[in-house]
Write a structure and sequence with these properties.
221 residues; alpha+beta; 2 domains; 5-stranded mixed β-sheet; 31% helix
Length: 221
């Protein structure tokens, strides 16, 4: 089964470094980021997990939980977490899923559903597609999917930017233009009429085309 944007994020029960969880129950009414790794003790992933540990307070401010996944047993994760803290300077305080049976990787279409075996004997190369990021909304729907090559570290500042953009859209009916960052002008979505826009944005906006109306970013509060 392939997954698309706005599909329901598949639920699962799995062992993690913080005990066994039911994913949907763990997420609750928060946003969630699930990001995966092909193997423990791999260099690029070590830097990524450490950076996400650094960013965790920023995601928490946005009512967003973080959960990692690696195709290895939880026991390995515990040892790896020590290396991550030592080399990256940040302790991993979010849960890390042990996906030694490849169940979650298959469920999220990161490995073929008919893939045989367990994590035993597998290498990062045989798990190469397990390098994905999913942003999942409080409605349990998938809002973003990204998959990276093993040799390219992921840009989690970009994931934070995307989360800010989606939360802004949800609250204010605006979209964000190319390379948008916090504080830049935004776009009034086409489904909002000019009449409605006058009520929503009384200070006015700049019309470049009837379908392209720029307005100052609404305050998040």
């Amino acid at each position: 089964m392939s997954l698309r944007i706005n599909d329901e994020a598949p639920n699962f029960v799995a062992k993690t470094t913080q005990g066994t969880i039911n994913f949907h129950e763990w997420q609750g009414n928060s946003w969630a980021i699930l990001f995966s790794h092909p193997k423990d003790f791999t260099p690029v992933c070590t830097t990524e997990l450490g950076y996400m540990a650094k960013l965790e307070p920023e995601f928490a401010k946005r009512n967003c939980k973080i959960i990692g996944l690696s195709v290895d047993p939880v026991e390995n994760h515990v040892s790896w977490a020590k290396d991550i803290e030592e080399t990256q300077g940040h302790a991993v305080n979010y849960p890390m899923i042990g996906d030694s049976e490849l169940a979650v990787a298959k469920l999220y279409n990161m490995l073929p559903a008919d893939e045989l075996g367990t994590s035993e004997g597998r290498t990062a190369a045989t798990n190469a597609t397990v390098r994905s990021v999913f942003i999942i909304g409080p409605d349990k729907k998938i809002k973003l999917m990204l998959t990276y090559p093993m040799t390219t570290g992921r840009n989690f500042d970009e994931i934070l930017r995307v989360l800010d953009s989606m939360q802004l859209t949800l609250k204010h009916k605006v979209a964000t233009p190319v390379n948008w960052k916090e504080g830049d002008d935004v776009i009034i979505v086409p489904s909002v009429s000019d009449a409605d826009a006058k009520e929503m944005f009384p200070a006015g906006w700049k019309t470049l085309k009837p379908y392209l109306r720029l307005v100052k970013q609404p305050k998040s509060t």
